[in-house]
Amino acid sequence: MWDKIKKYYKDWLFMTLGVAIAGAGYSFFIMPNNIVTGGVSGLGVLFKNIFNGFDPALTILILNIVFLIIGLFLVGKEFFLKTVYGSLTFPLFIELFSLLYNVIPNEYKEFDLPLIVIFASISIGFGLGLVIKHGGSTGGVEVLQKMMFNYLHIPFSMSLYLIDGTIILIGLFVLKNVQLSLYAIVFTYVAGVVIDSVVFSGFNKKAVYIISDKSEDIKNDLLDQMDRGVTSIKVIGEYSKKERSMLLCVLNNSEYIKLRDIIEKYDSNAFYFAVRASEVRGEGFSYEKQYPNIRG
């Protein structure tokens, strides 16, 4: 019961943090430079130019309400409630950070456009990734992304490219600025990569496969020194026709360095390889260890 309560408040806390980070990236980098990045935020920039300074935060709020009505019927009650929260707080944070941006002296706002695009894509991608990872949305086309993921199994980055690409193309015809449109494409790609990295926790996890004559010693060190679960898989070498045990474990980057030292200590001729794990759930990663004597 306590774990569920803790997870509930943790989700809302990180959702709020993610919305704030995304709002700051939009207010400080995207809106002042008229970069049509896609989504309702990109439409906010478009409307500001088409309708002579129409408030982008108001545009985002109106469009979010429209998408909320769609989301109510298609994405589930819990996601809808979190989307209502994100839809209201995202334009609020944009307005607050815009007020802050306006009081910052101009000498602190002079950045090269490539630097602006890089920081915008990382901050907004990271913020949106946090929101999505904890089951929420900042509204707008994220509702469409969620539906495309749930029903069509399209990754968030791919749906981002499809939807935002269309809006960026419209921005090219409206603003007639090829340079800004090219930068918007760069932003969309980098933000999509960052979103997937945050949502699927792929930054620091490696799945390691080890085949060695000293697998028992290596396994014992993994269990005792690193406190990580290990799975043994029976494999057959087709050249020698010899059956051996292959070890499988999932580690973060710093633990992987220690694992290499352990392998070298026992068997310098061991065969092993590591691949990045796109998502890791379970004991030690998505929840703490509950049964210390049980290993995978």
Write the layout of secondary structure elements.
Layout: H1 2-30, H2 39-50, H3 56-74, H4 77-103, H5 113-133, H6 141-152, H7 156-175, H8 178-199, E1 205-211, H9 215-225, E2 231-237, E3 242-252, H10 253-266, E4 271-276
Antiparallel strand pairs: 1-3, 1-4, 2-3
Description:
This protein is an alpha+beta fold. It contains 10 helices and 4 strands, in the order H-H-H-H-H-H-H-H-E-H-E-E-H-E. The chain has helices spanning 2-30, 39-50, 56-74, 77-103, 113-133, 141-152, 156-175, 178-199, 215-225, 253-266, and strands at residues 205-211, 231-237, 242-252, 271-276. The chain has a 4-stranded antiparallel β-sheet with strand order 2-3-1-4. A hairpin with a 4-residue loop joins strand 2 (231-237) and strand 3. Helix 2 (39-50) packs antiparallel against helix 3 (56-74), helix 3 (56-74) runs antiparallel to helix 4 and helix 7 (156-175) runs antiparallel to helix 8. The protein is elongated. Residues 290-296 have low confidence and may be disordered.
